[in-house]
Amino acid sequence: MSKIVMRFTGVGGQGVLLAGEIFAAAKIKEGGFGIKTATYTSQVRGGATVVDIQLDNEEIFYPYAIDGEIDFMLSVADVSYQQFKNGVREGGTIVIEPNLVHPTDEDRKRWNIVEIAIITIAKEEVGNVITQSVVALAIANTYTKALDKQLLVDTMLSKVPKKVHELNLKAYDLGEKYATEAMA
Question: Which of 85, 89, 129, 184 could bridge across to 123 with cysteines, CB 3.0–4.6 Å?
């Protein structure tokens, strides 16, 4: 695997940090190198947040993603989408929450914009909005094929309380299902 660089964006309190932490930890368990860096705006709750994730078989010497080198971005808030979209390379994939993120026609020409109702899936199909980070995790891994699914799922389960394992497994399966359908 060559280096994979992902970006998750949202607003404070949406849980994008957890997905980044799971990806990095799983890559390290696999024997590679993984790092996540998070940036918050001054308003923690409700302000734009971004988590950059780098996964590589080689050592990573710079912790921040370099604009123009991001392969995949997932965004669940328009304010952070608008602020951080330009870091994605031309032709890269950006998965958006269509109820909250509003790409322009120009954006659609520049990137592969995919609409998946991440928050709606978590809230209505899984039954718990907090699972949106796991829905996002599954979508990102389905698109990037960054890590072995079982390794990623096992790492995710190690990071969430046992009482929500079933919910999170359901969230992962639904995220994977919707991503696979969107790719068809």
Answer: 129
Maximum distance among all Cα pairs of the chain, rounded to whole angstroms: 44
State the Cα–Cα distance between residues 84 and 119, nearest whole angstrom: 20
Instruction: Tell me which residue of 162, 166, 172 sits closest to 137, measured CA to CA.
Output: 172
Query: pLDDT digits over 132-160, tens only?
Result: 999 999 999 999 999 999 999 999 999 99
Share of the chain above pLDDT 70, in %: 94
- Strand, helix or coil for residue 138: helix
d(CA 108, CA 58): 33
- Helix H or strand E encompassing 136: helix 132-144
Strands 4-11, 48-56: pairing kind: antiparallel
